[in-house]
Design brief:
The complex is a heterotrimer of chains A (197), B (297) and C (793).
Chain A: E1 3-7, E2 10-14, H1 23-30, E3 49-52, E4 55-58, E5 71-73, H2 78-88, H3 103-112, H4 126-133, H5 143-156, H6 162-168, H7 180-195
Parallel strand pairs in A: 1-5
Antiparallel strand pairs in A: 1-2, 3-4, 3-5
Chain B: E1 2-4, H1 9-18, E2 23-25, H2 31-36, E3 44-47, E4 57-59, E5 63-67, H3 72-78, H4 84-91, H5 96-99, H6 104-110, H7 117-124, E6 126-132, E7 135-140, E8 145-147, E9 150-151, E10 158-165, E11 171-176, E12 187-194, E13 199-205, H8 215-227, H9 230-233, H10 239-252, H11 263-285, E14 292-293
Helix pairs in contact in B: 3-4, 4-7, 8-10, 10-11
Chain C: E1 5-6, E2 12-15, H1 30-35, E3 45-46, E4 50-56, E5 62-68, H2 70-73, E6 78-83, E7 92-93, E8 100-101, E9 107-108, E10 114-120, H3 123-131, E11 134-139, H4 146-150, E12 174-182, H5 185-189, E13 194-202, E14 214-219, E15 225-229, H6 234-245, E16 252-256, H7 272-282, E17 286-289, H8 292-298, E18 301-302, E19 305-313, E20 319-329, H9 337-346, E21 356-364, E22 371-372, H10 379-397, H11 401-408, H12 428-437, E23 447-448, E24 451-453, E25 470-483, E26 492-502, E27 505-511, H13 521-533, E28 537-540, H14 558-585, E29 598-600, E30 603-605, E31 611-614, H15 615-619, E32 624-631, E33 650-663, E34 668-679, H16 686-705, E35 739-742, H17 759-776, H18 787-791
Helix pairs in contact in C: 6-7, 9-10, 10-17, 11-12, 13-14, 16-17
The chains are: A alpha+beta (197), B alpha+beta (297), C alpha+beta (793).
């Protein structure tokens, strides 16, 4: 069958799709977008997380045909997506209840890290840069899914508590880091976001 | 394999009538796992995502009409007051990503004893609205589960929505898993106090071939509460009543040993959860209870 | 081959002026990894490629009576269906023993063994074709444990063994046996005031790397093959692959693709030979990607073990003796079982001074899933048992468990049970002091103004307790792990360094075959090159087989070994550069004669800091290139009777304190904090060091409370090959992990470094167990702890 949907703002079409193919397979193998990862294909690891009409979902559990006509954002389009969001709502938006990580804690991070020699040119979204800076990337296989999930968390909750971060990322397994640096990265991105308000 | 994409409910019913073996797919969180792992090769997949009304809900006087595809995350966010037990159960479903896709229609359609929604639905009391080209009917939840992964649906029927009684009292839900998130139930327990009818209803998951109610425990508790005038006095339930309720709940379980847990642990855990959730709901009923934070919901 | 290959690794370049060793430099591959552009082995794609699919055995032990592939072959879109009969050359491979069939022939020896292969134009076509292959099995009796393996009439898992251990083992179903006898344990036991004994069971753990086994094999015009795979050791793969393809090694050109984690599970071959055979047969590129189900059968696991221990001590807490027997189940094929046995035996005493010991470790052949390398390699199982023994001993002596450990802690100068002196710092007592000195996390952190936050309680989101039944416990553990390859193995790494001027700037190219599996080797390599050559810009060449072996990314050895090789080669490059400088400019300044010239900031400087020349002027258009092997000091085999021998290169030490909260009624556990202290020798990149320690710690936590491959003892079949039932810790299961690290240089190692990746996986598990015992008062001699164990149900 043929499927059409929009990925990262671009209309995409795939032909000869087998009816049992997942959105993940079509993205990876038919559209040249292998950034979303195939780690379990049973919705138990979150490595394939994409935004489907705005919601983070496991793309391995969406039949390709179900995505017909949808808007999809993958890790490849995350930086653009974040940029457009910031252009339309500068600063993200944190209401009156900003309880989370203090700016000071986040600055300690900057002091400990070095200058960001990776990601020069500013094409990365804040959460992508924070993952690099905080050492949240090791093998990196879980990273794309975590980035999509964490970016969505910060979109709806600009100052998440540690428990909020843990809950929002509880569907994304990481086998390398022990998660501590991932928490650091989300705290760092949140603090930087606040700083720009 | 054929992929059927009905654009309306009527088209979906017609497709199901024409292809009774078609497997409905909505959130995909069960069906796609089976396809990815080569456990199932249905002749037809019947995609229900284009039928907007399945993702809608309506809060009425007595009932909530909950569309079969309303995602768990929407239930958590929007129906915590009306359906507190189901909202709690929804929060235990898999991961945030899965909760954004899955809905009660999938749990009911699969009818796995481990489905997280079942104990909450049983405790709240509801009717499942199913429809075919032949017409529509309401199946009481107590008559819905007919065997291991079997339900009362005819081959040409689809689940449209669930008519769930709005909470008239506190409800609770607990699920044991060997991980603190994203885990399939080893067993689960739901409880709903119904002060209007002065009854308590329960639901047990993953501890019998189908989701069940702990009927003996309910009957005992209903009688004990009535006899002791607890509904009026709102006094503390005595430990002996709670203990017997827990024992009876545990006794109504009929679990098996599997990789997720042993039968005797399941029986034990059902009892503990029954006692605790009764304590939480009753404290709440007494109007002085602690509440529990359920995350960002 | 026509067509283009996408996803081939590109050179990663770090532009930086500083960024030498000791700094928390960021990963050079970080940007690619956060944008989704980093090419993992499962991302490889080639025009016109086919998909490979295996068919695996449905029974654990059986004769193969017949295989019928005709229906599969007849299907549209199917290009090849192969069985062992179709293999072009050698039919077996293996790292230490060549006992593993590429495709089973004669019989299958474990559940999920590959029997046939399909290549088709779509993965679904390949799966349907595989399902049409008919195999008839005649089932054989099962070997599932020590008793069934060593019974006098036991059926042999492998007949006619001729490997290097077959001559000395007491039974052909024992892969290897390593005793260690030192002093006289029986005699010393008489001095003991108390004796404790214990039997411990360690479950089978999966590496569960997230990137599945996968890769792309592209047939080449010269009859050879270009292979893009994710592995821990390119050259070891190559040595096993080439004979099975009937090709000389130079015709098998391997390039490392992105590796989605490894942890030991990629030290053995998985799909490499299978995809290559299909590619050679069909003349088309073949991609293979295991799904998660297949991945559980696609690599070896951590050996499950039974451990029997006896310790004695005097009233004042001095350990008198230790006796132990360790039985490791290696499963159907040897993999690295023999080396795991050597490790388990030689490290079975733990980081303690015990003069009189009687140790025996054996590794079995069975019909269970094959086991081999996983982070901690034999030392993990032993640590779980000896640390449980320490707590038992402390309880019996009515002593503080940390004090007992400190009292018997080894230190520099201690003689190991193998007779090997510990000749580098061994700050065991200090590591324990550090974790103990940390303030405990506050009690009842789940209490908020609005009630109980279930996310901070046992059971988490499942809402099982609001504080009822919850008891806190604290536990300690410490462990010892060897670093590098032991027992006389010729362990080396190779580094090719090229220094030249590009666009007016001196640039270093570092080319090694080191497998970057996520640990951050590529970051460190650039840091070392900067420190040694004083250049700003370092390019890391993709790892491939066009350079000499780097050895395995395992055993905590890569920073030591390939780091050492790069340091060494850079030193040789520097000498050549200075030679050129002397030739060109020697007459300009007398300091050129000075032997202590350095390369710093792109210049040749004296040790006093005087600039003699710009590197650009010294090199001009000349490139200096060195490829050199580098070895650690040699080790010896362990004596097969006494176990004596200087078998290890280096030791690593870590200690943990675990704080847990247990719902004692439901048997659910929340680990609240896991504090670690570790000696890292020298932290070349502190950010990476902490990442390794925290990651290793959580793998230990997983095995303590949830991770286990469950094998049915009646059928030897795996019951939970999925992420639904093989549970990994989520971020809600993982505690805060404060890390203290010491930097006590090892005088034998480059920069004083110590392998860091493995030690934290050892002590994490027993610390969590100790904390749960502390909370519940239960004995708990098994991993993982299940709710049933805590509730007696």
């Amino acid at each position: 069958m043929r499927v059409n949907f929009t990925v990262n703002g671009r209309q995409q079409e795939a032909d000869d799709v087998w009816e049992g193919e997942s959105l993940l397979y079509v993205l990876r193998e038919r559209m040249g977008l292998p950034g979303s990862k195939n780690a379990c294909e049973q919705g138990e690891c979150g490595s394939c997380t994409v935004r489907l009409n705005g919601l983070p979902v496991c793309s391995c559990l969406v039949a390709a045909g179900q995505a017909e006509g949808s808007e999809i954002v993958t890790v490849e389009g995350l930086a653009d997506y974040a940029k457009h969001r910031d252009d339309s709502h500068p600063g993200g938006g944190c209401g009156s209840v900003c309880g989370g990580t203090s700016l000071q804690e986040a600055r300690q991070w900057q002091a400990k890290g070095t200058d960001g020699q990776t990601g020069e040119g500013g094409q990365l979204s804040p959460i992508q840069q924070a993952f690099i800076d905080a050492g949240a990337v090791q093998c990196g296989f879980c990273t794309p899914g975590l980035l999509v999930a964490a970016d969505e968390l910060l979109e709806r909750n600009a100052s998440p508590s540690d428990a909020d971060i843990r809950e929002a990322l509880s569907g994304n397994l990481c086998r390398c880091t022990g998660y501590e640096t991932i928490l650091d990265a989300v705290r760092l991105a949140a603090a930087r976001q606040e700083e720009t308000v | 394999m054929d992929f059927l994409r009905p654009a309306s409910w009527e088209e979906a019913l017609a497709a199901k009538a024409e292809h009774p073996t078609a497997v409905p797919i909505a959130g995909g969180t069960d069906v796609m796992v089976e396809i990815n792992f080569d456990h199932r090769r249905p002749e037809y997949l019947l995609d229900l995502n284009r039928i907007g009304e399945l993702s809608e809900w309506e809060v009425g006087e007595e009932n909530v009409l909950l569309g079969a595809s309303v995602p768990y995350s929407a239930i958590m966010e929007n129906l915590r007051t009306e359906l507190p037990g189901l909202a709690l159960a929804s929060h235990t479903v898999a991961s945030p990503q899965i909760r954004n896709r899955g809905g009660v229609g999938g749990n009911l359609g699969t009818a796995s004893p481990a489905g997280d929604a079942h104990p909450a639905l049983l405790a709240a009391d509801c009717e499942v609205e199913v429809e075919s080209v032949r017409g529509s009917r309401l199946i009481p939840i107590d008559a819905f589960y007919t065997g291991v992964k079997r339900n009362a649906l005819a081959a040409d029927e689809l689940i449209k929505r669930v008519h769930i009684k709005k909470a008239d009292g506190p409800q609770q839900y607990s699920k044991v898993g060997t991980r603190n998130a994203m885990v399939i139930a080893v067993c689960a327990f739901g409880i709903a106090l119904h002060p209007e009818t002065r009854t308590v209803r329960t639901g047990i998951g993953s501890a019998a071939p189908t989701p069940i109610r702990a009927k003996a425990a309910e009957e005992f508790l209903n009688a004990a509460l009535e006899e002791g005038g607890f509904w009026e006095s709102r006094k503390i339930i005595t430990p002996s009543i709670a203990k017997q309720f827990a024992e009876l709940a545990s006794g109504s379980a009929n679990p098996i040993d599997d990789v997720r847990g042993t039968a005797s642990y399941r029986r034990h855990a059902v009892g503990i959860m029954a006692r605790r959730t009764l304590g939480w709901t009753w404290e709440s009923y007494r109007g002085e209870g602690r509440s529990s934070i359920e995350g960002v919901a | 081959m026509a067509g283009t290959t996408t996803g081939t690794p590109t050179n990663v370049t770090q532009k930086h002026s500083k960024g030498g060793i000791g700094e928390s430099m960021l990963r050079p591959d970080g940007t690619l990894k956060v944008t989704g552009e980093f090419a993992y082995s499962s991302d490889m794609w080639h025009e016109d490629m086919l998909w490979g699919q295996t068919l695996r055995s449905t029974v654990a032990h059986a004769e193969i009576v017949s295989i019928d592939t005709s229906e599969a072959l007849a299907m549209d879109g199917v290009y090849a269906v192969l069985t062992s009969d179709d293999l072009p050359a050698v039919k077996n491979y293996g790292m230490e023993f060549q006992d593993t069939p590429v495709l089973a022939y004669g019989k299958v020896r474990h559940h999920g063994e590959p029997v046939a292969l399909v290549a088709a134009d779509h993965p679904e076509t390949a799966r349907r074709a595989a399902a049409k292959i008919k195999i008839e099995y005649r089932e054989l009796p099962l070997i599932t444990d020590e008793a069934s393996a060593t019974a006098p009439d036991a059926i042999l898992v492998h007949e006619n063994r001729d490997d290097h251990h077959s001559g000395h083992v007491p039974h052909p179903n024992i892969v290897h046996r390593q005793p260690i006898i030192r002093g006289n344990a029986a005699e010393a036991a008489k001095k003991a005031d108390v004796i404790v004994k214990g039997e411990y069971t360690f479950g089978m753990q999966d590496q569960a790397f997230l990137g599945p086994e996968s890769g792309l094999a592209v047939p080449a015009e010269d009859g050879g093959i270009d292979l893009y795979v994710a592995t821990q050791w390119l050259h070891s793969d190559l040595k096993q692959i080439a004979p099975c393809l009937g090709l000389p090694e130079e015709k098998v050109r391997m390039t490392m693709s992105g590796v989605g984690g490894a942890f030991g599970g990629r030290e053995d071959i998985s799909m490499q030979i299978l995809a290559s055979v299909l590619a050679l047969r069909t003349g088309k590129p073949v991609k293979m990607v295991y799904n998660r189900y297949e991945s559980f059968f696609g690599h070896v696991h951590r050996h499950p073990a039974k451990l029997y221990y006896e310790h004695g001590a005097t009233k004042d807490g001095k350990i008198t003796h230790m006796k132990c027997k360790i039985v490791l189940d290696g499963g159907a094929y040897a993999s690295s079982t023999a080396s795991v046995v050597g490790n388990a035996a030689s490290l079975s005493v733990g980081p303690y001074v015990i003069d009189d010991v009687e140790i025996e470790a054996i590794g079995l052949y069975s019909n269970n899933p094959p086991c081999g390398a996983m982070r901690g390699f034999g030392a993990v199982q032993a640590c779980f048992a000896y640390e449980a023994q320490m707590d038992k001993l402390a309880a019996k002596l009515d002593m503080d468990p940390v004090e007992l450990r400190q009292k018997n802690a080894m230190s520099q100068g201690t003689i190991m049970p193998t007779g090997q002196p510990v000749d580098a710092p061994a700050p065991v007592a200090e590591l324990l002091r550090l974790v103990k000195a940390r303030p405990l996390p506050p009690e009842q952190q789940w209490t908020t103004t609005e009630g109980s936050d279930v996310r901070a309680l046992p059971g988490g989101l499942s809402n099982t307790t609001h504080g009822e039944g919850v008891v806190r416990g604290v536990g300690y553990a410490v462990g010892i792990k060897n670093v590098g390859f032991s027992e006389g193995f010729d362990d080396y790494s190779t580094a090719k360094i090229r220094l030249e001027v590009i666009n007016g700037e001196a640039v270093a190219l570092v080319h090694t075959a080191m497998a970057e599996v996520g640990q951050g080797g590529v970051t460190i390599h650039a840091q070392i090159a900067r420190t040694e050559l004083g250049v700003q810009q370092v390019t890391i060449h993709p790892a491939d087989t066009q350079v000499g072996s780097a050895g395995s990314t395992s055993a905590g050895r890569q920073t030591y070994m390939t780091g050492g090789a790069i340091k060494n080669s850079c030193g040789l490059v520097r000498e050549k550069v200075l030679e050129i400088g002397r030739r060109k400019f020697g007459s300009y300044h007398p300091a050129w004669a000075n032997a202590e010239l350095l390369l710093e900031g792109g210049k040749v400087v004296t040790d006093g800091g005087e600039v003699l020349a710009d590197l650009v002027d010294v090199l001009e258009d000349e490139a200096v290139e060195i490829e050199e092997e580098w070895r650690h000091r040699p080790t010896q085999a362990f004596d097969l009777v006494t176990g004596q021998g200087n078998g290890h290169v280096q030791y690593a030490f870590a200690a943990h304190r675990a704080v847990v909260e247990v719902d004692t009624e439901l048997g659910l556990v929340k680990v609240v904090e896991l504090a670690v202290a570790q000696d890292v020798g020298k932290a070349l990149n502190p950010l990476s060091v902490i990442g390794q320690i925290q990651g290793g710690t959580v793998q230990g936590l997983g095995v303590a409370v949830m991770e286990e491959i469950i094998v049915d003892p009646k059928t030897a079949k795996v019951r939970n090959p999925s992420f639904t039932d093989y549970l990994l810790p989520t971020i809600l299961d993982t505690p805060t992990i404060p890390v203290d690290y010491l930097e006590l240089a090892d005088p034998n190692a480059p920069y004083g470094v110590r392998g860091i990746g493995e030690a934290p996986t050892l002590s994490s598990t027993p610390a969590v167990l100790a904390a749960i015992r502390n909370a519940t008062g239960l004995e708990l001699n098994k991993t993982p702890v299940r709710p049933e164990h805590l509730t007696g149900t």
